[in-house]
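Supplementary material to the annual report.
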Amino acid sequence: MGSGSFSSVLKKPETTSFIILVLVMVGFTLANDRFLSPLNISNLLAFMPELGIIALGMTLLLTAGEFDLSVGAVFALTPVSTLLMVQNGGLSLELALVIAFAATFLVGALNGFLVTKVGISSFLVTLSMLLIVRGTTLVLTQGFPLNSWDGDNWLRTALAGSFYIGTVRIYASLIWFAALGLLALYVLNVAKVGNWITAIGSNRSAAVARGVPADKVKIWLFIATSMLAGLAGVISSLRIASASPVAGSQYELEVIAMVVVGGTALTGGRGTIIGTIIGVLMLRIIRNGIVLVGVPGLAFNIFVGVIILAMLVLHARFNKSSERK
Amino acid sequence: MPEVMKLEDIRKNFGSIQALRGVDLTVNGGEVLALLGDNGAGKSTLIKTISGIYPIDGGQITVAGKPVRINSPREAMDLGIETIHQDTSLAPDLSIARNLFLGREPVTIPALGVFAPLDLKRLKAEASKLLRRVGISKNLDADAPVNSLSGGERQSIAISRAMQFSASLIILDEPTNNLGVEETNGVLRFIREVRDAGHSVIYITHNIHHVMNVADRAVVMRHGRIVADLMIRDTDLLSLEAIIMGADAATLAAGLKHGKQH
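Predicted assembly:
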């Protein structure tokens, strides 16, 4: 049993990802000792939760066999509409957030409804939604970033405040990411609905035949993903005290890359929150480390792409060896 | 034997196509009933109405003496009817234990609804107990994912799941379709054990040898109706085959005409 469980730990996709993450970190540290400097770690930790929070929702959605390309656009819509209501409409931040998140909820619900009840693939539905939401944001702002917002508010401290541990600056968003990560971990691995999510992505008709309300679960996952993307957008915008209609462009692809690099299958049925957290760290660290190592800016994406591909090849090989057809 | 289920004049239409044209059938306790017929005879449609996938357009279903309406797979299961489809009954990425309890997970804090934590200890213990009881535990770990199992093991797991919830009626839709000889024999043996444990089985198959081997009774469907209902001990392989092919000339001619249209 001892050796069996050891080899099963080795076979887990998140273990592969974790080993590679450690290797990458060691590599960057050897190449540039500023990689582990407090300033660099602060920078890494400031950005990471914003994409990471979206990645948590995306992991659950992918596990159920769907995905959402509209998250980057929602990342802009929620804060832009919030700050417009605050700056131009004179609403309190609290009320503006409630209204903006109600709209965000509707975006997710509409995605889920069109995918499950009308039967259009999530690729097409959420691609269209990306255009609609991004377009709406551009129209609302006339294409310009909003004025910087210097209002002080307890919510701003709670969502985007920061404090120091030694010389490392920690943002509140990191704590939110950690808490939401634990929640997602619980939902997927321990809660009853997690069993349903995996079953739906693994074999939808089997799940339905067992009485699992597959459509309802999927609709709520689309809603959760939209809400998390909106929350990430609001955190980001409160941190930089402004909101831009083009914020979050291409985040959808970055987030999906993070999730699959962590070992979650694009085809559904296999999801790992731990893997996603590793994937989020990995992509942020690679983007950060490549700059520190001095790779020329234009060649940057080549490296990111190659590393993502290498990870996916590794996962594919591990899956093949443990599966029986 | 008391009757487990009674169907009276069951009708089902898809647009202008009459898939079921008034089916009468009584399933008795503790019998293996083979449901036979050509493709398009209405076997699958009949099974789907019993298992809650299609609502019926007419007729009456009676389960354990009570008239019922079966509107969803869930309601069918609650009535003690478990259906095992060809190879779509399990979620391959979930463990054996989690598959066994899919949709009926034991939880520790039920008040949390769908967010209630699974009772993982009980899940594993009951799954292991079940695997031992049905004699397929040899080297199966309840925590192993189903995609690490062979086709025969998967069917046995699916059938065990139906037994575990003390289903009075277990419906097997071509359970041996993608299996090798050895594994098929295992599943057939298992079907007899299921019957001996007191469950009734409706067994859909095209393989007439399996029918002679495992069934107590054969029911033949054609064009949405039941055209023959006989005890296996009163018939033999050749007569049964002739009935399935359409023993009387009129229907044989109709079958040929039908065949030409394709």
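The interface with chain B takes residues 186-187, 190-196, 198-199, 201-203, 205-212, 269-270, 322-324 of chain A (CB under 8 Å).
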